[in-house]
């Protein structure tokens, strides 16, 4: 191929280049993989490594073609059919077989009773279905592990028999196993990852396909298609099963948010409808000026009127009402139902993609792991003693080798978590300090300050601190995991995931746990407040702390999702633009170095952001953190599922755009589930039950209301507000909170939100008996709620099997048909082989007989010519007898065979 700059000089060349945009120069063989390196790299060691590595690739049967026309040199790789056949058998890849007799009957019987239902549902959901012309339904095929012995049973003639994902997966497997130092083929000098880490190659990536990508961009990565289903089969063929299973999970999770979002809306509407029937809000709003509350700080704070919290108590009622327990019950049941239904849905997908029964094969060791073995003296000595051709790896002892890096890694993780807790604690102190002084927002007793100013400013600062800690720990977690001896990529990913998520759990949820379970619970009383650094602890409004928890949840949840969306789209877009601009204007060039011109697919994709093994980690983490917001604290904001639903509808399309336009095509990998993330969500679901129980018990008025009604038989709750407010005699102040005179004159008593005896009681300011009753009932409620919900969740998990009965029957029947088909095939092959061998032996015997007769006749002719009187008996027999004798000989041999 000529210089790319000349491709734009004449039209004919441009047309010719269109045929080889992502193909070899012959225009037939497609480019499946690309290696790129700097053409100015003249290091002898790197050149030898590249030559050896590429020669080994060619020995494996891969086709290589070099593009050295620009400063970045590219090695184009194509996998021919024979290589794909060989490694498909080695990797036990399941591929579609030809139609088996009786196969259609299986699928026909499955839908015999549901044709009318399917027709009705098809018409009902026609608006969200995929365009059948662009995404035609694939014919149902039985998948079986490819074996070259049974090649004729597979649908090899199908053009897409090896889809792009399978081809990429096989080539990547080959690249990871090839040595690059001739004569020193040890475990630490093989694999493309090691070459990339050593800088021998700049990058290795697969190419986007314009045809398939344009189709996915128009029909999938398009916000206008937000209500349409995802083309999961096309995504699987383009990106591989590991990426497709993420989008399948995200889509399923988004659809499961619809019913719980409707419940949240109904719950919120119920609060608005019954807003004016709440006796607590009515009593607070109608309170007279004589109901004065005690000052909320120790210095220069005046008394304040109870009715100032009118708006806060009304808004709090939207969350804390008679339907709160019902909504908590629905959320708990929804969480476990979602997890169980996902297992059923994923089982169906995995079977459709031919991954049923797939387990991770023995993975190739990570190059970083092998390098760590070399750096360890004892292990390096063991490696040096091995046969160079051996692939044996030394056993890495835990206590002497693995323990110290793992202990150090997790110790630093705990230290980081402590730093996060200190940051959250500093926010609490900030809020206390704000309470202790006059606010810049005006009157600190105003509703605006109490409801909006304080929670809003604290929430914004908290979000900033959380984001900074998140960014700092993201790089730290990678370094901590690098210290460990993680042999395979799966072990590495799981270790990184657990380490990162535990930190994120503390980082994002700590402030919410504080507001839900600690704020206002250990304040004390006016004569003896509990202080931290001299500051009084924060108090909840008389209506409760749920509204502040709601505001904090909205700020952190929505703010985090907005920040992530901006960074996910903006950063790759800006990086792509910067790379293109720098290559065009020469900003990244060295002296006398030519520009890199994008004139084909591999040069265009070179400018994209690289794909890494941890690229999907951030996507999963964002969604699982959101799942925690909904399940752990969704009770405080019933519209949280709705906000998550809206975000996810957009998230699916934005992730698709990012992966198709701004990131290099990922290496396709096999997967049968979402990995450790499912276990994390299972644990979060169990914690969420306890969280909901504790929020209801300690942060709502449910238990105090029940105790009040039982003690006073006042079922109208007209006196409940007075029941929750204690009296305090201002003469008992040890330190007067007001330096001057109060605007309310000489105040003799004030009220505060606590369950304590009045000053005229024989035990003033002590806990009354009904306080202990409330505490016992709260604890009993937590135990009962958790056990009841736990039992119901267990029943749901038992009632919803991981694999549907229909799918199990299909798998059994397909396996039966498959076995019978293979047996029949083997029988036919055995018969053909036996007949072939028989024919060959018969042919050999006949040839021997004819040869013997011919030799005998020749001998007789020789005797006759010599004048002898000897005569052979065979000569005296006629031709018919001779033929009969031949047939008898053949028949006797056949009988013996």
UniProtKB/TrEMBL annotation:
Residues 24-232 form the Anoctamin dimerisation domain. It is found in: Cell membrane; Membrane. Its main location: membrane. Pfam families: Anoct_dimer (PF16178), Anoctamin (PF04547). Residues 235-814 form the Anoctamin transmembrane domain. Keywords: Cell membrane, Glycoprotein, Membrane, Transmembrane, Transmembrane helix. The chain crosses the membrane at residues 246-273, 323-342, 407-430, 451-473, 501-518, 624-650, 674-698, 770-800. The keyword Membrane applies. InterPro entries: Anoct_dimer, Anoctamin, Anoctamin_TM. It is a multi-pass membrane protein. Belongs to the anoctamin family. This is Anoctamin.
């Amino acid at each position: 191929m000529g210089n790319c700059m000349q491709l734009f000089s004449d039209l004919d060349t441009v047309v010719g280049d269109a045929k080889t945009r992502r193909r070899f120069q012959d225009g037939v063989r497609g480019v499946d993989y690309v290696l790129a390196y700097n053409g100015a790299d003249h290091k002898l060691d790197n050149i030898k490594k590249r030559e050896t590595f590429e020669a080994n690739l060619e020995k494996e049967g891969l086709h290589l073609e070099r593009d050295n026309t620009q400063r970045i040199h590219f090695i184009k790789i194509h996998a021919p059919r024979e290589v794909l056949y060989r490694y498909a058998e080695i990797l036990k890849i399941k591929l579609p077989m030809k139609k088996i007799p009786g196969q259609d009957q299986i699928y026909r019987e499955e839908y015999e009773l549901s044709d009318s239902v399917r027709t009705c549902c098809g018409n009902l959901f026609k608006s969200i279905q995929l365009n059948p012309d662009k995404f035609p339904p694939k014919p149902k095929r039985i998948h079986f592990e490819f074996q070259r012995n049974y090649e004729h049973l597979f649908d090899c003639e199908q053009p897409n028999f090896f889809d792009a994902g399978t081809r990429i997966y096989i080539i990547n497997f080959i690249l990871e196993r090839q040595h690059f130092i001739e004569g020193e083929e040890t475990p630490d000098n093989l694999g493309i990852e090691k070459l990339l880490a050593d800088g021998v190659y700049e990058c290795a990536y697969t190419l986007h396909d314009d045809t398939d990508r344009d189709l996915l961009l128009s029909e999938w990565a398009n916000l206008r298609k937000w209500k349409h289903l995802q083309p999961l089969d096309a995504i699987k063929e383009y990106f591989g099963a590991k990426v497709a299973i993420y989008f399948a999970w995200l889509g399923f999770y988004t659809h499961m948010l619809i019913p719980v979002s409707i419940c949240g809306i109904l719950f919120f509407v119920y609060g608005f409808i019954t807003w004016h029937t709440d006796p607590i809000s009515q009593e607070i709003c109608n309170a007279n000026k004589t109901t004065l509350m005690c000052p909320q700080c120790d210095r220069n704070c005046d008394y304040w009127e109870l009715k100032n919290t009118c708006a806060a108590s009304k808004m709090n009622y939207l969350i804390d009402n008679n339907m709160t327990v019902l909504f908590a019950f629905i959320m708990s049941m929804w969480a476990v139902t979602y997890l169980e239904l996902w297992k059923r849905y994923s089982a169906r997908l995995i079977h459709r993609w031919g991954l049923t029964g797939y387990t991770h094969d023995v993975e190739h060791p990570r190059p970083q792991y092998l390098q760590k073995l070399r750096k360890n003296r004892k292990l390096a000595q063991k490696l040096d003693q091995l046969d160079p051709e051996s692939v044996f790896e030394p056993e890495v002892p835990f206590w002497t080798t693995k323990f110290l890096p793992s202990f150090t890694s997790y110790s630093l993780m705990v230290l980081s978590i402590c730093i996060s807790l200190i940051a959250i604690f500093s926010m609490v102190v900030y809020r206390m300090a704000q309470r202790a002084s006059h606010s810049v927002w005006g009157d600190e007793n105003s509703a605006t300050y109490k409801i909006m100013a304080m929670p809003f400013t604290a929430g914004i600062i908290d979000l900033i601190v959380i984001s900074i800690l998140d960014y700092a720990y993201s790089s730290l977690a990678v370094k901590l995991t690098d210290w460990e001896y993680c042999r395979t990529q799966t072990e590495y990913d799981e270790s990184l995931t657990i380490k990162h998520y535990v930190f994120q759990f503390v980082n994002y949820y700590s402030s919410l746990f504080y507001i839900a379970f600690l704020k206002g619970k250990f304040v004390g009383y006016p004569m003896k407040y509990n202080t931290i650094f001299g500051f009084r602890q924060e108090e909840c409004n008389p209506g409760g702390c749920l509204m502040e928890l709601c505001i904090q949840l909205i700020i952190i949840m929505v703010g985090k999702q907005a920040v992530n969306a901006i960074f996910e789209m903006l950063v790759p877009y800006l990086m792509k633009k910067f790379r293109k601009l720098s290559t065009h204007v020469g900003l990244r060039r060295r002296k006398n170095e030519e520009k890199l011109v994008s004139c084909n697919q591999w040069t265009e994709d070179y400018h994209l952001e690289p794909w890494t093994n941890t690229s999907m980690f951030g996507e999963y983490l964002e969604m699982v953190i959101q799942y925690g917001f909904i399940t752990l604290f969704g009770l405080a904001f019933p519209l949280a599922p709705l906000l998550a639903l809206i975000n996810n509808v957009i998230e699916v399309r934005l992730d698709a755009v990012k992966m198709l336009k701004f990131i290099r095509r990922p290496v396709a990998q096999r997967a049968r589930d979402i990995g450790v993330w499912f276990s994390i969500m299972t644990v979060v679901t169990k914690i969420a039950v306890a969280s909901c129980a504790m929020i209801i018990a300690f942060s709502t008025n449910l238990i105090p209301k029940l105790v009040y009604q039982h003690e006073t038989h006042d079922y109208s709750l007209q006196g409940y507000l007075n029941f929750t407010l204690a009296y305090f005699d201002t003469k008992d102040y040890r330190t007067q909170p007001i330096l001057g005179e109060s605007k309310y004159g000489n105040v003799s008593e004030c009220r505060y939100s606590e369950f304590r005896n009045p000053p005229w009681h024989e035990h003033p300011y002590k806990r009354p008996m009904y306080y202990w009753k409330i505490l016992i009932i709260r604890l009993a409620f937590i135990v009962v709620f958790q056990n009841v919900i736990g039992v119901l969740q267990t029943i749901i998990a038992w009632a919803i099997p991981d694999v549907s009965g229909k799918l199990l029957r299909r798998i059994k029947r397909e396996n039966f048909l498959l076995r019978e088909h293979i047996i029949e095939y083997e029988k036919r092959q055995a018969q053909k082989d036996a007949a072939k061998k028989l024919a060959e032996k018969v042919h050999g015997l006949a040839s021997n007989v004819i040869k013997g007769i011919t030799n005998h006749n020749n001998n007789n002719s020789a005797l006759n010519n010599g004048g002898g009187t000897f005569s052979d008996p065979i000569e005296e027999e006629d031709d018919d007898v001779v033929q009969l004798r031949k047939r008898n000989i053949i028949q006797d041999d056949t009988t013996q065979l």
